[in-house]
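Section 3.1: Structural characterization of target chains.
Under the original work plan, the team committed to producing a structural model for every single-chain target entering the pipeline before any wet-lab resources were allocated. The record below documents one such target. The sequence was received from the expression subgroup and is listed exactly as submitted; it comprises 313 residues.
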Amino acid sequence: MIDLGKLTTEQRNPATTRIDCCPTEEMVTIMQAEDAKVSAAIRKILPEIARAIDATAARLADGGRLFYIGAGTSGRLGVLDASECPPTYGTDPELVQGIIAGGEAAMFRAQEGAEDDLTLAEKDLAARHFTKDDVLVGIAASGRTPYVIGGLRYAKELGALTIALSCSEGSEIAKLADIALTPVTGPEIVTGSTRMKAGTAQKLVLNMLSTGTMIRLGKVYGNLMVDVKASNHKLEERARRIVMQGSGCSREEAEAALRKADGRAKLAILLVVTGCTAEEGRKALQESRGHLRKAIHSFTTDCPKSADCQKEG
């Protein structure tokens, strides 16, 4: 039996032992002070996060995929991060996938016993044809969830890249993985409620991991999400603005370029900045593996219409 008292995330927080007696404003002041510790915990592991981003991007560039697995809050955070990649970066839904113990129903209601099964993650990963070319991020605040442990063991046996995200020192999943991301956020405001500080830390780290990976894959130009999928009116307007901001063109020019580019902001920027044809632009982007800056420079090193290119010289 696991001694929960030895886990950082299960210890009692001395700063909040009388939080139930506090006036409400004092209560939320204490909460905010504890939440402020999350950023400092993440700052300590930035080198490991950077290593995880580079390793993940390398796998995905060679045809691999990124998987998150977890149970409860940790699983939900993985599913959330994965589900936001297609609309933000125009990725195939298969590229980044989130798997939660207990399946889709567990997103809305706890599935008793699912997280305690050591073999269930292997079955879930096998069902998605997980291979040695892929990346698995096991997420567990305590670092000892059997479902996540089983998934990481299976991934390692295949030779896949394994990353562990936990919030307790010396966790079991950290010992298993190739790269351990361990932002130690300390005891929770409400003892054991890891949806709070630990959950916030996990969300921030996952934001960094997926965003950094997409930047390395050429999904961002400057700070513009040039592969955004314009699937609604708001995103269509965002695509127009991205073309205008990325190329310095007018709204009318952006709309015309987007029509030529079949709505693809990245290609539209390339058309405006270089004056190339849509066919030439598609070829350049293919040769640059989707990196817009490289595609622009394949035509010319002097891009007067692009402020970003001017800065690079």
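The chain is about 50% helix and 5% strand.
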